[in-house]
Amino acid sequence: MIHFSPHSPWPRRLRRSLIALAVLVLILAILRVTAQRMVVAQGGIESFTTRAKLKGIEVGIGAFHLANGRYPTTAEGFEIIYTKHKNRSSFLTQPEQDPTKDGWGRRFSYEWPGTHNPKTYDLWSRGEDGEDGTEDDITNW
Questions:
Q1: Most buried by CB count within 10 Å: which residue of 14, 84, 92, 115?
Q2: Whether residue 52 sits in one domain with residue 17
Q3: Both 58 and 20 in a single domain?
């Protein structure tokens, strides 16, 4: 059995460690609640996922443009950035989740040349309601 004398530094160190641990747990709990509220405030996890995927597709289309001097045509679709080309790998590797679908499981829409971006392309998700041209659409314009 361990006995601590009142003059020993151990109880004081133990108290400081426990207080530091409690403060750390409190900070992590606050961060978690804040992050959850931010995701909900931005339209939920589906919206957050859609925005992230849209940005990833834009990076792949940019790499395709640099390598080929052009954007994928509407007929080719943006999906071409995930296919392998002669003497090179694909412009983006395909993750486990289908990168061509938004957070609601619907395919992104792509048009080249774009109506909203006539010098480049339009890339968009129809958003939560699945209808084109509504307020919840997530776009690159």
A1: 92
A2: no
A3: no
